[in-house]
Amino acid sequence: MPKVNVIGAGLAGCEAALRLARAGIAVDLYEMKPNKFTPAHHNPNFAELVCSNSFKSDTLEFATGVLKAELRMLDCALLAIADEVALPSTQALTVDREKFSQLVTQSVKQEPLITVFSQEVSEFDLNAPTIIATGPLCSDALTTFLGDLIGEKLYFYDAVAPIVSRDSLDFSYCYEADDGYINCPLNREEYLTFCRSLQDAERIKLHDFEREINFESCLPIEVMARRGEDVMRCGPMKPNPKFDNGAYAVVQLRKENIEGSMLNLVGFQTNLTFPEQRRVFSLIPALKNAEWLRFGVMHRNTYINAPKYLNKFFQLKTHPNIFFAGQISGVEGYIESVASGLLCAINMIKYIRGLPLLDFGTDTCLGALQNYLLCGNINNFQPMHINWGLLKPIDAPKKEKKSRLAERALAKIAVLKEDL
To answer: How confident is the model at residue 209 (pLDDT cuts 50, 70, 90)?
Structure first.
């Protein structure tokens, strides 16, 4: 049986490698860390969580929760690890990102059928079974190689939110909500001052040859501020009447580690210079004396025009032995990247065994992700999170639709599992 090359040891690459190995298929896993890092990566371990430590909602009221339920039914390796290091939360699956990366790395390196090569890949054998899982920060050399292969280069920019020390908060201006977050309310005057400062703040200069494209569902906070006075308070700074007692706007802080000593500014991805981040974010009353453990950074997100070049099995149309997994394939988000790695591994196993590939169908979240790659807008393709709108509609009363969609999806997975 042929060996499979997996390029990239992020979420998708590690999930794919582990699934292949546990099916008895040898894997050569290539990862350029720790010899070389991207601008956004700092941890030498695999499956580094860069933007956030949240895998989003874990309840069946949301498509992300149903996707996790589907993955658990299919024995997803990385989701099992995430569950092991989960932080206390009422709805979302949030993890200790350091422990998560450590355990994923240990699992991969302890698997006897996986051989890890710590080296950058600038090109590869186009005839070998290969899964490209280089993530949103694919190296320049491999990006050039892939661009030449498909005939098109495409990328957008994403931003990483800053982290503060819990001990440095002024708790006379913030409080712990019963949803696991720390809320930092602002009155109207405080919010408008903050908004104007964001609008005028200095951003990091991009190179002339770089073209900035902001992904609409992950805009830098300063871009939101420049789009209008009320954009932030209708987005990441939207008050919750249940908790916020008439606040005009609210900044939410989320735990970054099990101890809760590190807190992430939810939705505050940014490309401001570091001095400007300190100046502007300190205008938030609860953060006026904050200790900044990490400032936000802007990094390049690279992805392929999936509807044009891939089929719904994540295969390159011109080279069916080459699969794309993770954000480079056109999915967006942690759990979606894990899911795409699992999907690629399942169908790579079938491909090299000469079996029909598995279509999960749009009545499941996994199949909805597959279908999006096939049916997305070729002329303006953007990565997509899993959401109810991607699934096949169901005829049910409005109040029952989500539960019925979830029930249908999990029933379908139970049937499809028999074909793995």
So the answer is: very low
> Which string of DSSP letters, residue by residue, matches 346-383?
HHHHHHHTTPPPPP--TTSHHHHHHHHHHHS-GGG---
Residue 57, strand partner residues: 92
Q: Give the separation between CA 213 and CA 299, rounded to whole angstroms.
A: 11
Which superfamily does 4-154+303-419 belong to?
FAD/NAD(P)-binding domain (3.50.50.60)
Helical H segments across 180-305, by residue range? 188-200, 221-227, 274-281
Instruction: Return the H-helix or E-strand segment holding 367.
Output: helix 365-375
* Beta-bridge mates of residue 302: 155
CA distance linking residue 30 with residue 133, whole number of Å: 10
CATH topology of domain 159-300: Elongation Factor Tu (Ef-tu); domain 3 (2.40.30)
Q: Are 338 and 12 in contact (CB under 8 A)?
A: yes
Handedness of CA 3, 4, 8, 10 (dihedral sign): negative
User: What is the phi/psi pair of residue 184, to 5°?
Assistant: -120, 95
Q: Do the Cβ atoms of 169 and 234 come closer than 8 Å?
A: no
Residues 111-162: pLDDT tens digits? 999 999 999 999 999 999 999 999 877 888 898 999 999 988 766 665 678 9
**Confidence label for 374 from pLDDT (cuts 50, 70 and 90):** confident
User: Tens digits of per-residue pLDDT, 51-85?
Assistant: 778 888 889 999 999 999 999 999 999 999 999 99
Q: Supply the DSSP symbol for 87.
A: P
pLDDT digits (tens, 9 = 90+) for 277-298: 999 999 999 999 998 988 887 6
3-class DSSP assignment, residue 388: helix
Domain boundaries, the chain: 4-154+303-419, 159-300
CA distance 245 to 358: 50
Residues with Cβ within 8 Å of 277's Cβ and at least 6 positions away in sequence, in order, are: 162, 270, 292, 295, 296
The alpha-helical segments, DSSP class H, found in 138-273 are 140-150, 188-200, 221-227
How confident is residue 402, by pLDDT bands cut at 50, 70 and 90?
very high
Query: Terminus-to-terminus CA distance in the chain, angstroms?
Result: 18
CA neighbor of 306 nearest in space, from 326, 330, 332? 330
Contact 214, 298 (CB under 8 A): no
Q: What is the chain's length?
A: 420
Q: Which has the minimum average pLDDT: 68-72, 210-214, 352-356?
A: 210-214
